[in-house]
Design a protein that fits this description.
Layout lengths: L1 H18 L8 E3 L2 E2 L3 H4 L4 H10 L2 E2 L1 H13 L9 E4 L8 E2 L4 H14 L4
Parallel strand pairs: 1-4, 2-3
Antiparallel strand pairs: 4-5
Helix pairs in contact: 1-5
Length: 118
């Protein structure tokens, strides 16, 4: 999960760079622990789900969707691109995704090659 989340963040950062000046924004986010039923599908995660639920740190699916809807619909963020937002980190302080532009570009290139768009 951590590797796929990092890839999503890096890819979003590179997309933001490539879309600069076009009016297209690319941001990524972490909604925190959301009760989507994902843990129910794999018995290996049931204990983790119980632990998270007992801690009070699990959001409903509706609460988890809030950040996505907010970022997509808030006109004050129209010019915000290349950022990572997280509810789990307390507040909505965006982190700049382009801190390592080389890593973002490498992931983009490898992705394009893997899907045959090189």
């Amino acid at each position: 999960y951590a590797n796929s989340k990092l890839a999503m963040v890096l890819f979003s950062g590179e997309l933001a760079r490539r879309m600069r000046g076009t009016g297209v924004a690319s941001n990524s986010l972490c909604p925190g622990n959301v009760d989507t039923g994902l843990y129910e599908a794999d018995p290996n995660f049931k204990d983790q789900r119980k632990r998270l639920a007992g801690s009070g740190r699990v959001r409903s699916a509706e609460a988890g969707a809030w950040l996505t809807i907010y970022l997509a619909s808030n006109p004050r963020l129209d010019d915000t691109s290349g950022k990572f937002f997280s509810q789990a980190m307390g507040g909505l302080k965006p982190i700049d995704l382009r801190a390592d532009p080389g890593a973002c570009a490498r992931l983009w290139d490898v992705s394009m090659e893997l899907v045959g768009l090189r």
